[in-house]
């Protein structure tokens, strides 16, 4: 009973959602409260689903979506629950809405989508979830702003880098002809301006780009007294107009680090020719040069040799800041940064909104969900899963009994047909191999018969040779005796003249 009295303090379904009490929410709906009831006490006219997205009450949001809460309801500003989740950076809530079919490309009264709002408020994790759902990164609002314009105007460096990674163009202009660099210079967001200048089509293109009023980024930063941006743009112009001074030979270690020549850099530092933390005329160390060009091997060697990565140059940047400006994420990670949110999002408006990584099964706002309530919510969710799985199996069986075919049944039939086809092919192959084997066995029998015949011929020839052998031995002995007898020479009897005459007579 004390628990029931405690729940009476929630006068409306909206209060139950704001306090993340799903049991009270369920009880109120059973008592007749509308699941899409508008909160008239709030100027924004939020529905329970919008309040769940605003406060990050993930369990309540799941329950509302399961019971078919309308995801297309809008506030007076034209915001849906997905817009509110993007504004508040409630990543898990936005993922749940997207999974339930919420339209993330819907536009509010100013033509802004969820991507515009997430980029403007600096919620890079939420923006990444939006982009992964297939939202077009180049959708324009009523002012012609793309999400990259919103990020540049509000100084959200992390969102800028994420949008560029997803293919957002930096040379697109709004209805007034402004590039994203114009907006960053106008508002004095120096880190964003550096990133845009370095990653644009070219430095000259970005520096000389003029809007419909003929203003360049430098002109706008000067008009709005953004001295840091003016000094940076002046330095970029000087470097562009004096390329021969960009690689100062008075600093050979800086040149080696800039070019990624690790062997030369190691020789200079190990032999004591230069100091590992030597600064050039702009206050940069070799680590700055290596980080800016993305030479990870040089940078890693410098860090291992004890290079000070916290030294800042004349622009107030560390080596990690330089790597983040040039989008060298591997160098950012090596220097102790988070490559998924490099550089962080500057918050000049002093918002205290925090970004939380999307973790499946947990809420974005741990303040509204204590650990005890999280465990209870997970237990209820698992119980619901088991119950629904049981009901799903019963529904499938009923559907099959009525002659229906499920997708898994079609897949099973397809697999069976594929198996049958494979079996037939294997049987045909087996038959072919059997016939081939019989043919080879027939050939083998022929070869064996031929071998036997040849063996017989060979034996016959051997017997003939053995019969002739004694005769040959006898002939050899006679020849030998004859040769021995003739070995004493030949006696020739010469006839006398008388004998010759007798013969002639």
TrEMBL record:
Keyword match Repeat: yes
Compositional bias (Basic residues): 473-482, 495-505
Transmembrane residue ranges: none
ANK repeat feature ranges: 77-109, 110-142, 143-175, 282-314
The entry's keywords: ANK repeat, Repeat
Spans annotated as Disordered: 463-505
SMART domains (UniProt xref): ANK (SM00248)
Pfam family, one: Ank_2
Keyword Repeat: yes
Cellular component per GO, a single term: nucleus
Recorded GO MF terms: cyclin-dependent protein serine/threonine kinase inhibitor activity
Protein name: Ankyrin repeat domain-containing protein 42-like
Organism: Branchiostoma floridae
């Amino acid at each position: 009973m004390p628990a029931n009295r405690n729940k009476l303090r929630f006068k409306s379904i909206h209060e139950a959602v704001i306090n993340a009490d799903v049991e009270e929410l369920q009880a109120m709906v059973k008592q007749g409260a509308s699941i899409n009831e508008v909160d008239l006490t709030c100027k924004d006219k939020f529905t329970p689903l919008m309040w769940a997205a605003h406060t990050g009450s993930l369990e309540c949001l799941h329950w509302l979506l399961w019971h078919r809460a309308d995801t297309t309801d809008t506030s007076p500003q034209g915001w849906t629950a997905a817009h509110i989740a993007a504004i508040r950076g409630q990543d898990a809530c936005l993922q749940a809405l997207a999974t339930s079919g919420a339209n993330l490309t819907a536009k509010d009264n100013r033509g802004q989508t969820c991507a515009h709002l997430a980029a403007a408020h600096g919620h890079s994790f939420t923006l990444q979830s939006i982009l992964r759902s297939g939202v077009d990164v180049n959708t324009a609002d009523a002012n012609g702003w793309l999400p990259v314009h919103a990020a540049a105007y509000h100084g959200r460096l992390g969102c800028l880098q994420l949008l560029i990674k997803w293919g957002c163009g930096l040379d697109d202009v709004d209805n007034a002809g402004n590039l994203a660099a114009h907006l960053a210079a106008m508002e004095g967001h120096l880190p964003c301006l550096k990133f845009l200048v370095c990653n644009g089509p070219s430095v000259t293109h970005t520096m000389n780009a003029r809007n419909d009023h003929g203003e360049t980024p430098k002109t706008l930063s000067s008009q709005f007294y953004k001295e840091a941006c003016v000094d940076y743009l002046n330095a970029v112009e000087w470097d562009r107009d004096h390329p021969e001074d960009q690689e100062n030979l008075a600093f050979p270690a800086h040149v080696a680090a800039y070019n990624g020549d690790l062997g030369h850099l190691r020789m200079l530092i190990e032999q004591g020719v230069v100091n590992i933390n030597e600064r050039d005329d702009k206050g940069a160390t070799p680590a700055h040069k290596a980080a800016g060009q993305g030479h990870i091997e040089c940078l890693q060697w410098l860090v291992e040799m004890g290079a000070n990565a916290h030294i800042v140059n004349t622009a107030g940047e560390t080596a990690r800041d330089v790597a983040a400006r040039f989008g060298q994420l591997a160098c950012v990670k090596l220097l102790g940064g988070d490559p998924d949110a490099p550089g962080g999002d500057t918050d000049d408006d002093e918002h205290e909104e925090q970004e939380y990584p999307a973790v499946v099964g947990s809420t974005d706002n741990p303040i509204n969900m204590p650990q005890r309530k999280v465990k209870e919510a997970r237990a209820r969710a698992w119980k619901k899963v088991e119950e629904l799985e049981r009901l799903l199996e019963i529904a499938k069986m009923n559907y099959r009994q009525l002659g229906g075919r499920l997708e898994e049944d079609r897949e099973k039939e397809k697999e069976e047909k594929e198996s049958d086809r494979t079996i037939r092919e294997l049987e045909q192959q087996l038959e072919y191999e059997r016939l081939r084997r019989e043919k080879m066995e027939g050939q083998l029998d022929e070869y064996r018969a031929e071998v036997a015949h040849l063996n017989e011929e060979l034996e016959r020839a051997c017997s003939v040779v053995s019969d002739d052998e004694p005769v040959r031995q006898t002939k050899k002995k006679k020849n030998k005796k004859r040769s021995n007898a003739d070995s004493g020479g030949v006696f020739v009897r010469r006839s006398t003249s008388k004998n010759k005459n007798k013969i002639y007579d």
